[in-house]
Amino acid sequence: MGRLQGIPAADREKVYYTLEPYRSREIIYIPVDSSVFMRPVISRQQAEALLKKVPELDAPVCITRDLKRLRDYYGNFFKTHTCEDLVRLIRSVREKNRKLEARGGHPRKIDQDYQKRAEELLCTELSTALHQPYDLVVQRVEQQIGNT
Fold first, then answer.
1. 108 burial class (0-12, 13-18, 19+ CB within 10 angstroms)?
2. Using alpha carbons only, how large is the chain's radius of gyration in Å?
3. CA-to-CA distance for 90 and 58, rounded, in angstroms?
4. Which residue, of 33, 50, 100, 136, has the greatest Cβ tally within 10 A?
5. How far apart, in Å, do the first and last CA atoms of the chain sit?
6. What is the phi-psi region of residue 132: left when phi exceeds 0, alpha when psi lies from -120 to 50, beta otherwise?
7. Mind listing the pLDDT tens digit for each residue in 37-90?
8. Pairing assessment for the beta strands 16-19 and 28-31 based on DSSP bridges
9. Distance from CA of residue 34 to its chain's centroid?
10. What's the pTM?
11. For 128, phi and psi rounded to 5 degrees?
């Protein structure tokens, strides 16, 4: 935390949080008095419990050609800021893709984009909480989702 120097758009009177995302080279500055939602990373115990709970977490599949409805549906999973809802989104998209492929269809880009974003957020948080390499966490998540 501190005051920003050398960034033209920064208010020099404000104090900022400095965030360095785990898997990124960017630095994010957020004013301390901002309304941006932030929460602490889940604990190791919460991460282990979540991994055990993955097979129980599912969500209805959203079948629609209306992109706004689909964006809203997927966006609601992100608004809760919970790892459980990220798992639900991933499982929903995977189930949708399974059904499409069974009928000879192909996954849509919008579904893949939301699934990828959810997987990255989930695995990055679990990697941080568990103090394990990202790739290992991806394997653990895949294994749990595959057990469903």
1. middle
2. 18
3. 9
4. 50
5. 43
6. beta
7. 888 899 999 999 999 999 999 889 999 999 999 999 999 999 999 999 999 999
8. antiparallel
9. 22
10. 0.84
11. -65, -45
